[in-house]
Amino acid sequence: MDGSSLLFDPDEEDDEFFYQGAKQQYRDISKRTNKKLTMEFDRVYDTDHTNENLFQECTAPLVDAVLDGYNCSVFVYGATGAGKTFTMLGCENCPGLTFLTMRDLFEKIQSQNATRKFDVGVSYLEVYNEQVMNLLTKTGPLKLREDANGVVVSGLVLKPIYSAEELLHMLTIGNANRTQHPTDANAESSRSHAIFQVHIRITELSTGTKRSVKLSMIDLAGSERAASTKGLGMRFKEGASINKSLLALGNCINKLADGLKHIPYRDSNLTRILKDSLGGNCRTLMIANVSMSSLTYEDTYNTLKYASRAKKIRSVLRQNVLKSNLPKEFYVKKVTELMAEQERLLQHNKALESKLAQLERSASSSSSFGGFDMQELKPWYSRIDAVYTSVIKLQQCVIGLRSKIQTLSYRQTLKKDFEQLRKAVTQDQRLIQESPLFNA
Ligand SMILES: Nc1ncnc2c1ncn2[C@@H]1O[C@H](COP(=O)(O)OP(=O)(O)OP(=O)(O)O)[C@@H](O)[C@H]1O
To answer: Most CB contacts within 10 A, which of 41, 78, 186, 390?
Structure first.
């Protein structure tokens, strides 16, 4: 309909039927009434839009967020044949979101090389029939386990990457290993969920601060009704497994949207792996692919319903900062600098205050406010406010740094005590060994 709303199942334009010049009102009782549902989304793209449009508006901002230290995930969801893989991978003339996003990521990394160090590693997994496989090495099934950092894939080794070309090469290898089988709905149907992840460790060269972030691109297998794909045997098992994991995903989305505490991530390996992309510390973009075909009417309706529910999920984001190994001297220097800055601002503030007092004095003695009108005074007031705000911020910073120094001093004292204790013990041991009693 427009850039952010969509009309599902609109009224069809019926040919009007006239009898003897009069329009006839009729209703086909065998026909289901149209749902005519208007749905609101952050953005709706129609058939004129390209993957490049999607990249510019949706995933380019995520690359900036990743480089600012936030985990981000993009996943495509929809009925089989609706265009999920096309959105993610595209074709030669119309590259998909993964290619465009990775190229942008590496360009931005290159432009920041002077001030930051980047260590990049990738993994490419597929969940096929509930089994987790490594698409880069064609190995598996891999086990999932949970630790303090969340769900971990046992035995998964990240492949270090040094250029955008290498990264795209890995993507090609993984795609070639992905499980695909023809269905009636799609000749090249992806029968597994594919999860491409780029893990980046960012080190700020000036401060040594480290951040570890993750960008995940997830191409889900298509939802399908068994009847619509006429799957038999293995294909039926595949379809059932896909639907089971998508059902588990739908349940998690519903519960997260309702703000519930217990989310059944453990119901499938797909939801276990996506745990931090759905409800964790992650900015998540969900792309719902829908087709205009009436063959996928129910699937399209379900996809849109899930997308509407997913829009309600709110997560709390934290920047991923790892501890920095900075010496105590760094903090001492920083405090000294901040205190000098604070002193300068205080002096500046005093000067502004006395200027203001002078103006107020002349204002009280004359109606013209000492030659200034109120409009001229306003900027001075806001400058004073701004200086006060800066002073307060600096004071908070100084307090934080002082407490860090105290902790470091305390640690140093403990270290010294420990050292003395160790020496004393060594000496005692030596005395014992040298004693005649010990040698007897
Ligand atoms: N925007 C598009 N422009 C041109 N071709 C498209 C577009 N979207 C999809 N297609 C074509 O439609 C077919 C099905 O698309 P695709 O494989 O991406 O569907 P899918 O949702 O990933 O399906 P499945 O879940 O079965 O894997 C492919 O041949 C693809 O090239």
So the answer is: 78
CA-wise closest residue to 42 among 310, 330, 244, 357: 310
Counting atoms of ligand 1 from 1, which one is nearest the CA of 51? 1
CA of 147 to the centre of ligand 1 (A): 37
Residue 406 structure tokens: 């105290």
Distance between CA 367 and CA 210 in Å, rounded? 59
Instruction: Say if the ipTM goes beyond 0.90.
Output: yes
> pLDDT digits over 239-277, tens only?
777 778 888 888 888 888 788 888 899 999 999 988 877
Q: What is the pLDDT of residues 409-430, one digit of tens each?
A: 888 888 888 888 888 888 888 8
DSSP readout, 116-177? EEEEEEEEEEEEETTEEEETTTTEEEEPEEEETTEEEETT--PEEE-SHHHHHHHHHHHHHH
Residue type, 274: L
Q: Residue whose CA is closest, atom 8 of ligand 1?
A: 83
Whats the size of the chain, residue-wise? Answer: 440
CATH of domain 40-310: 3.40.850.10
Q: Please state the domain extents for the chain.
A: 40-310, 328-439
Residue 356 three-state SS: helix
Residue type, 98: T
β-bridge partners, 190: 180
CA 58–ligand 1 middle distance (angstroms): 20
Ligand 1 neighbour 196 (Cβ under 6 A)? no
Which atom of ligand 1 is found nearest the CA of 187?
Answer: 29
Contact 2, 42 (CB under 8 A): no
Q: Is 196 exposed, middle or buried (0-12, 13-18, 19+ CB in 10 A)?
A: buried
Q: Which atom of ligand 1 is nearest to the CA of 186?
A: 26
Residue 326 CA, distance from chain mean position: 28
Residue 84 is labelled as binding a ligand:
yes
E strand or H helix that includes residue 286:
strand 283-289
